[in-house]
Amino acid sequence: MISFIVRLRFEPEDHDAVAECLRALTAASRKEPGCVSYVAHFVEDDANIVVIYEQYMDQAAVEAHRASPHFAELAVGCLYQKMKERSVENLTAVA
Questions:
Q1: 24-30 contacts: CB < 8 A, separation 24 or more?
Q2: Which residue, 7, 10, 68, 94, has most beta carbons within 10 Å?
Q3: Total domain count for the chain?
């Protein structure tokens, strides 16, 4: 199992467009056969920050996600164009 958290920061004026991209990206990602979990959040104390929790069956599933048409359109073509900062935290399950 591969799990990670992606943190993205956006400008306040992009909030609605980012939310729309996230809803579409989440719906499409959850349909991928190797996707276990894909949950996007706005941080309650700072609505300009998005946290996405992603979990995949294996590295091949991660690569398939990143090579998908919806990732190219909605992540690269939308979110990446609007983001001001991005970080990724790779996770190791305790049990």
A1: 24/70, 24/74, 25/70, 25/71, 25/74, 25/75, 25/78, 25/79, 28/68, 28/70, 28/74, 29/54, 29/65, 29/68, 29/70, 29/71
A2: 10
A3: 1
Name the residue range of residue 26's domain: 2-91
Q: Can you give the CATH number for the domain in which 55 is found? A: 3.30.70.100
pLDDT at site 37: 98
Q: What is the pTM of this model?
A: 0.93
Contact (CB, 8 A) for 23 and 50: no
**Percent of the residues in the chain that have a pLDDT greater than 90, as a whole number:** 98
26: which residues sit within 8 A by CB, 6+ positions away?
38, 39, 40
- Which tokens in the block code for residue 70? 């919806």
Please write the tens of the pLDDT for every residue from 69-81: 999 999 999 999 9
